[in-house]
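re: ur msg from earlier - yeah i can do the XIL complex, just paste it... oh wait u already did. ok heres what im feeding in:
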Amino acid sequence: PSLISWHRQRVKKYFGSAVDNSELSDQQLLKFLTNKNEFGQITPGNGQKWQYTEPSRGQFSYGSGDQITDFAKKNGQMLRCHTLVWHSQLPSWVSNGQWSRDTLTSVINTHIANEVGHYKGQCYAWDVVNDIYITEALDDDGSYRQSVFSEVLGDTFFAIAFDAAAKADPNAKLYYNDYNLETLGAKQQGAAKIVKLIKSAGKKIDGVGMQAHLIVGQSPSQSTLKSVMQSYLDAGATEVAFTELDIRFPSLPESSQGLEQQAKDFGAVTSACLEVEGCVGITIWGFTDAHSWIPGTFPGTGDALLFDKNYNKKPAYSTVSSIL
Ligand code: XIL
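and the outut:
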């Protein structure tokens, strides 16, 4: 079975992949990625981030984003759109600006109205706020990451951002998306609190996105994943999704035993999503080890995806597709 048998067929869930603009010139990649029976959903890896879409104030530029959204449209794939408010890949005019509450609020409102307006009707979901917690284990206490947004606006920027997104595309599902949300603990509780915070401000939030940048052999169990998802649904989210799944080897090269473990870890995520009704789908952050952000960001680690560098299907592919 191909991955797609999941996509609005046997069960109503999608299976998709992120793709970056530069990858679209790789013919081998295109052979697989254009097949909606394999990948029913696409997320732009970079093109919709603030640094590309509003590089200077009020100057909007959608070339990179559109390249990916047009690609998905042409292939009949659904789209997750990524991302609006994030401390990273932010143009310096935003991060270094001297903002008052009012001026930063207006900057956020303008950015979101413009970008979400531009893509209106095309996005199944938007990652409205991304990566808002401190992530290093020691500091991972559920406090907000320092960013221009939290420094100027405290926690009110959530309501501002979600409100602006809801107004600009009432039909898009609105997500809070973060990493290390896949185990129970301070960060998971913090995420549940954010859902409640946004709802108690009277604003719309639909989903929690678990990025799921996981590590082979240290990946959460199926039952942990299910409890975690349930906690977000209990907090008031109507859905959850795995939005950037990859499961990297902590050291390379991996053994064949390692590849089997990776397959089990991918299988746990897939089965967990299958068994939780509110889990709408899984997006992998690229599908081939030929193109992945992992080695550049976590040197010495890698091979985190379903196909190897030569586009051969790995054991994880077989496991995932057999569950789907
Ligand atoms: C990554 C991209 O894949 C890289 O190409 C880029 O250099 C940095 O960002 N969490 C996110 C994604 O929400 O946007 C990040 O994507 C990976 C971590």
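cool cool. Residues 135-139 have pLDDT under 50 and may be disordered. ping me if u need the other ligands too
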